[in-house]
Amino acid sequence: MKILFVQKEGGIFGAEIYQLKVIPGLLAKGIEIEFLRLYTDYQGGSGGDFIERLNEIGVKTYEVNIGKYLTPKVLKAIKLIANGGNYDLIHTHLIHADFHLALVKTFMKLKPVLVSTKHGYDNSFTSKFGFDVSKQSKTPYFLISRWAEKRMKASFTISKGLRDFFIGTGLTQSEKMRLIHYGFDMPENFVLKGNEGFRRAPLQIMIAGRLVEFKGHKYLIEAMEQVVKHFGSDVKLLIAGTGELEATLRARVDNLDLKDNIDFLGYSKEVGAYMANSDVVVVPSISEGFGVVFLEAFSAKTPVVSWDVPAGSELMEHGKTGYLVEPYNIDQLSDQLIKVLDNPDEQEFIVEPAYERLKSYFNLERMVNETITFYEDAL
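Structure (tokenized):
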């Protein structure tokens, strides 16, 4: 079986991490994979780390500059690659790839079978409403997504919450869309516990992710006001990541007089080590297509607190493998953090079942096998 993966890429985030995990797994099973990277000059440019890492594992790659505006020249370039590689399937990821390949299929006769993975939804929508089906209107993003999805032979989402949203809004039909959870062979982050270089306070809280609206950093910063009142200078929040909201978040920290209790780490390749040496990891996202950060925390054997929304509510069971808090309730969030920090001996009964769930279900072997079955059924 030969498959062309297609995605617009401008940095290594959740979907790109997925590619760098699932592609080696598929190659090991005898599936031949090539990759078409769509890019723009104003977001990523040509080449880059992602392409280099694919090449290092033996994946043949192509690139097409899709520019800011759609042109026939771009579609012809994509068609030439898509129809010229003797592919059985073309597997698209994210809306740009979905839309461009759906156009080629509709107007230029695409030869291979077209399938898609949904890693998330419109950030501007989910930042405001999460996965609230009732809030979705016929926006351009919605209409383009629905049109493209109709051209797919089959598709799958990475979480039940996301699948329910696509079906509930009428973006697709239940019989056409499957669920395949992410499954990665995570580094054993817990072995890094006890490294004082990654601990900055007697009590340490950690959040990791892009500094963008839907990740919900602002809620955690607000909750820290009560946490600091309880623990004083003994507690510190570490914020790992960069993004457009950094200046706004720093200003809020200053306004709340929390500069001594909150450190911005910027981009870090040592997130696993920081998690392993923290007392709790917080995921206050308004919504997550999946949330790789949960798996990173499970592998660190560090308890996780998140809102009771997808995908946290899907990946964790409250009081058994993590802690779920009423969405956007700052008081409940701060109370839960204080409770976890005040009761460190109880956390073993949370982190060990979460780690076991990671190893037994959220693993690469299961995800790869389910993906191959999806391909076979689509063909």
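The mean pLDDT is 96. Residues 14-28 form the longest helix (15 residues).
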